[in-house]
UniProtKB/TrEMBL annotation:
Taxonomic path: Bacteria, Bacillati, Actinomycetota, Actinomycetes, Pseudonocardiales
GO cellular component terms, A-Z: cytosol
Protein name as it appears in the record: Alkanesulfonate monooxygenase SsuD/methylene tetrahydromethanopterin reductase-like flavin-dependent oxidoreductase (Luciferase family)
Xref: InterPro entries: Bact_Lucif_Oxidored, Luciferase-like_dom, Luciferase-like_sf
Source organism per UniProt: Amycolatopsis endophytica
Keywords: Monooxygenase, Oxidoreductase
Amino acid sequence: MKHGLMLFTDTFGTDAASKEVLDWSLEYVREAERGGWDEVWTTEHHFTSVVQNPSAVAMAAFLLGRTSLGVGTAVAVLPNHHPVALAEQTALLHHLSDGRFTLGVGRGQPRVDLEIFGDGLAGYTDITAKLTSLESTLRKGGFDDVRVVPEVPERPPIALSVASVSSAWLAGQVGVPVILAPFASLADKRAMLDAHAEAAAENGHRIDPAENIDSTYFAIGDTTEAAQQLLVDGVRALVLRGAPGSRPLIEQPEMTPESAGAMARQVVGHFVAGDPDECARQLAEREELLGAGRIILMPEGAGSREAVLATVRRAGPEVFSQQ
């Protein structure tokens, strides 16, 4: 299994300047390259001071020139982009990186960026046409009678982020692998993969299960209890912060400290957290159950720059080396 590091560009609720926050991410990448990680993954968020990267593809392009690791997007928000333009950018990065780039796309969150860049809630609700167009353009090397330049002799790596059986079915129907969302339980992820495989078979697609990608929040501690508490505290703080500055398109009840704490305690069991031996055991369990060939690990859920660095540095020699 390949181990990928998610870069959220999280401020952790501080008033750190954007340059400082982005420099933190570059430090995580340097530590990952030294520490035995295989990949780094970038995100896309708009109009919020909490996570400060509005272009997953642009940051991925930058990192491809700064590291020898694989680089992916998790995710480029598909409703915000023209699928043929994304295909062109993917072809370019595929060539310039000698195949180290993976385009991960998803529907994003129902926030104001979807109205500014896309079709609002309608585009968020139904991504079928855009996903189909993106996959077809990359597979055929063109759109209608227009050729993609630079040309791609075979479809570069692409995956759809899914958090439900219906989204997994869509990915299988179109013929692309999936990125399993971090908050889902292992049982729910297995159900998504089963639906994905069934849809792929029904539509004549052959997708190797190892092409699918798992994702989870991740913390290493001296004890399992300490690592789990790091994630409970970090996720609770993350949920309470929300996305200030980015207006939601669907109003939701405001989280209280009590409800955020209850939610964090409920989902921590879905994550990889523990002492090094326990983390290695959990990763092996996920690999056996899900069969995914890659996993995106999210240490920024631990709630501080120091906790992220500790987990990134310890992961290779203490956890990955056991697999």
